[in-house]
From TrEMBL:
Taxonomic lineage: Eukaryota, Metazoa, Ecdysozoa, Arthropoda, Hexapoda
Protein name per Swiss-Prot or TrEMBL: Uncharacterized protein
Domain of life: Eukaryota
Transmembrane residue ranges: 20-42, 54-75, 87-111, 117-143
Keywords attached to this entry: Membrane, Transmembrane, Transmembrane helix
Pfam families the record matches: DUF4728
Amino acid sequence: MEKMWPLKKCCFCFKLETGAYTLGILGIFACPLNVYFLFLTINEKKAETVPVPVKLYGTIWSAIALIAFTMLIIGSKKRERQCLIPYLLMNMLSLILNLMALTAVAIYLLLAGRMLIGVAILIGTHILTAWGVYIWMCIYSLYLEMIDDEKNQVDPAYV
């Protein structure tokens, strides 16, 4: 029986490198869109009470994510495992923070009597978190695969 961990394929059919590269490209396009929609949504609602730290946090987080996605692309193309570490750290931190924040929002809505939206947010949050953990496991599997490749590589000096 073939072992399940680490994962051998991304999205059950692509090579891990292909999945990492695709995720990096999608992430690079998503970061500027995230900042754009953050400011667009705030400006259209004329929410003058939205604090500047919220805008600043979103912009800084998107910049960090842009760097992590760029390094993910470089690491997957050049097989440099150290380049995968920023993505792995950023993604895990993001998953934990999003899970906590959105679960808190869902609980608040449930306690406020808005059952439908509270349950929808709770279910959606857990589905997206599960998907995020799966993607994280794919990139971590690529990282482990690169470590194995380095261990199995023969040093030309000893040949």
